[in-house]
Amino acid sequence: MDKHQPKQPLSEIEIRAVYGQGEEAVVSLVSQLMARLNHLEAEVKELKGRLGKNSRNSSKPPSGDGFGKRTSSLRKKSQRPSGGQKGHPGRTLEWCEQVDEVVSHLVDECEQCGGSLQTTAVIDYDLRRVHELPSLSLRVIEHQAEVKCCGACATLNRGQFPAEVTTRVQYGSGVKGLMVYLMDAQLLPSERTREVLSELFGCEVSEGTLYNARAKCFEELAEVEHRIKTQIEAAQVLHCDETGLRVNRKLWWLHVASTAVLTYYFVHAKRGRAAIDEMDVLANFDGVSVHDGWQSYFSYDCAHSLCNAHHLRELRFIEERDQQPWAQAMMTLLREIKRQVDAAKAAGQAELSIRQLHEFEERYQTILIDGFKANPPPPIDGNAPKKRGRLKQSPAKNLLDRLERHDTAVLAFMLDFRVPFDNNQAERDVRMMKLKQKISGCFRSATGSRMFCRIRGYISTMRKQHQPLLEALTGAFTKNPTFPLLQPE
Domain for residue 428, yes or no? Predict the structure, then answer.
């Protein structure tokens, strides 16, 4: 930049002074002004793009959309009415034959003439049944271990307490299981957990007692977590994702590897390859990994499938901001392929026909060609100093490069019916972390975050397998946890 580049708006006197210096000075000033104008236009376009992003056309969560008009869903509107559908079994409270208590409502006098009916025989009953909670209070159970002296050798023999009864006075496994359930399943902070236990059961516990229960549960679930991880590594398809979380006021990352019936969480200070290596799932996996295109995942030798829900949002953003027809065409194609795949699955087919595959692949490549024509590579200025890293490109060009480079991963759901269209499974599994942070805030230590991950992975797995959750957590304190199945019935 020379002395003629304006830092502030030029006054008329300054402009005339440049003009007085001759043609070269004017050309230099105009060139610099044009360069600055181009830079500002690019900056404005980028900022407008950021402002135009919402949960419909990007990966921003719906909570970031503000209180304005809600964005429309990418899903097509169903033709069915809202509410329960015809033939739906429903969940009406049913009449049961067994009752726990009978409350009699007597008839002592005639409502017409006032005569006494106290000695009159009952000819029938009108019945109504109320499902009610029992009175909530702790039961104190005394365990008595017999002590006997052998008459033959005078040895004192003592009865054995259950494995979970370890101290003179303690909380039972059911209470400890409920503590963990409230903190890690319902995501209540410790103070609110103490309030629930106090108000419902009259149980006054300290914060230390809550965290001791969580630490014990964490310890007892080590073998269960190992089995979950091993079974995920043996799965045909797994879902991967990551999201940020706060540990001791610093940004850490929650990583998830999951299937429809198993969940494994791992927390690490890094997001990329170092964390995934230490997580040690993909290194031993030879199936199909479904993810959102984070580059670190591609460094593993397994097959890959990309989340097309992400692609649809990115394509919508490009179509809305840049009005590029190829983006709308690609959205239409991906949705059409999904409809054909869903129809084939419903018909019991294992794959699409060769003709369908060939037609879809040709259309895909044609759309990419049109996209690249509309988004040529950015020009290279030979006089500009070289910068480290890749040359900055537009969002449209970056997306086109990904769709071309990883075309097999984008269309994996079309080529292999075991592979889903999107990565919603993993996204659902990490979503609870945002809820956790909204309710309880961040973790105070790395140890606490690892405890939460192991217990929460077990909770998620038990829910997926429709196991009674409170019973499963209670079992962890009796050294009898429920072990998950790879393919539950």
Answer: no
Kindly state whether residue 9 falls inside one of the protein's structural domains: yes
For 285, the token pair is: 């996996």
Q: Which structural domain, as residue segments, surrounds residue 15? A: 1-36
- Amino acid letter, 299: S
pLDDT digits (tens, 9 = 90+) for 199-236: 999 999 999 999 999 999 999 999 999 999 999 999 99
CA distances 31 to 26, 269, 378, Å, are 9, 47, 20
- The pair of structure tokens assigned to 190 is 């410790």
Asked, for residue 144, whether it belongs to a domain, the answer is no
Please tell me the pTM assigned to this model: 0.79
List residues bridging with 253 in a β-sheet: 244, 268
Identify the residue whose tokens are 């502030």: 8
Q: Are residues 261 and 319 in the same domain?
A: no
Alpha-carbon gap, residue 339 to 41, rounded angstroms: 41
Tens digit of pLDDT for each residue in 462-484?
999 999 999 999 999 998 888 88
Overall number of domains in the chain: 3
Are both 471 and 357 inside the same structural domain? no
* Residue 76 in domain: no
Kindly provide the residue ranges of all beta strands, DSSP E only, lying in 65-154, ordered along the sequence: 147-149
Helix axes 207-220, 173-180, angle to 10 degrees: 90
Two structure tokens written together for 103: 């409350």
Q: Which two tokens stand for residue 327?
A: 């983006």
Q: Are residues 341 and 228 in the same domain?
A: no
Are the C-beta atoms of residues 482 and 467 closer than 8 Å to each other?
Answer: yes
Same domain, 334 and 399: yes
What is the widest separation between alpha-carbon atoms in the chain? 125
